[in-house]
Amino acid sequence: YQRAGINRISIGVQSFSPQKLQRLGRIHGPEEAVRAAELAESLSLRSFNLDLMHGLPDQSLEEALDDLRQAIALNPPHLSWYQLTIEPNTLFGSRPPVLPDDDALWDIFEQGDQLLQAAGYQQYETSAYAKPGYRCEHNLNYWRFGDYLGIGCGAHGKLTQPDGRIVRTVKTRHPRGFMQGNYREKQYDVADSDKPFEYFMNRFRLLEAAPRDEFSRYTGLSEQVIRPQMDAAIAAGYVTETAEQWQITEKGKLFLNSLLELFLAEE
Question: What protein family does this chain belong to (predicted)?
Answer without folding.
Answer: Belongs to the anaerobic coproporphyrinogen-III oxidase family.
